[in-house]
Amino acid sequence: MQFGIFTVGDVTPDPTTGRTPTERERIKAMVAIALKAEEVGLDVFATGEHHNPPFVPSSPTTMLGYIAARTEKLILSTSTTLITTNDPVKIAEDYAMLQHLADGRVDLMMGRGNTGPVYPWFGKDIREGINLAVENYALLRRLWTEDVVDWEGKFRTPLQGFTSTPRPLDDVAPFVWHGSIRSPEIAEQAAYYGDGFFHNNIFWPADHTRRMVEFYRKRYAHYGHGTPEQAIVGLGGQVFMRKNSQDAVTEFRPYFDNAPVYGHGPSLEDFTEQTPLTVGSPQQVIEKTLAFREYAGDYQRQLFLMDHAGLPLKTVLEQLDLLGEEVVPVLREEFAKGRPAHVPQAPTHQSLLAAKEKKEKEAATV
């Protein structure tokens, strides 16, 4: 399995001090968090994409390109690439460029985002959200897999004899995850193409996540990509840890109570009982995360949200130390136990390239 962190890049006041970081401070903090993720042995750093306050990651490729230059092993991903409002041509070219710079350590998570006004800002109609996601991604795939593209659709000017540059590294497009919390149409899209499906897994109870993942797995098999167990699944999650569980609860409570997303709603206790949020000791994080397999099956990627709600950088880095030293090594070992041999690992550039070369060799011998 791959383990990592994802960030939404929110600029939120620290409720314990009242101080709000500057945009520069928050951007620099996100870079520091990515570098720390590699230092403690995590596999993935993923950033969201937003075009409105109080968020800063409006240009994921700029940030990931900078991080690529300062890391060696970390897989660089997005936790949302707005397939609905970005031009597929620009996505194809930007992420192929990043792929070359990062020596293949790149994948993407397609999503529609959670900000309605972003659609008119980019000249789109939110009522066409699903249709935009479907059409734009179909074009993006062609731009990555075909050297010359003739195309005409509903939402974009036609293309005639167009070649996206640079071409994907080694003629292998970045692996794509389709992220969705509640839209079966997106799970269907992921299954149709044989891509990965990522469930945010933060705000919803286990039964909802189970239904979405099971639907994707069944449709993946329906389209002939393999058995349901071979589908590529990723999950999110949010944790806050201290050595002593009560210390974690006491420290995190003001951040939870004032968070822009889930603050001023259910209590911390209710939220941790009803959703995957884990606030406690490293052992509690291990136990709850291992339980995800009960409703998601053997899956390939686990990302944690750790820098949300105004937590100061020092605290987040301490959390990453705990995650890398005490949690992830145990999770790697425990998730590997009993994992069927036919369940694939998370795709990487190297594994996709090897599969491509094997297919070409087999075709040459026919």
From TrEMBL:
Keywords: Monooxygenase, Oxidoreductase. It comes from Streptomyces capoamus. InterPro entries: Bact_Lucif_Oxidored (IPR050766), LLM_FMN-dep_put (IPR023934), Luciferase-like_dom (IPR011251), Luciferase-like_sf (IPR036661). Residues 339-366 are annotated as: Disordered. GO terms for cellular component: cytosol. Residues 1-295 form the Luciferase-like domain. This is Oxidoreductase. One of its GO terms (molecular function) is monooxygenase activity. It comes from the Bacteria. Residues 355-366 have a biased composition (Basic and acidic residues).
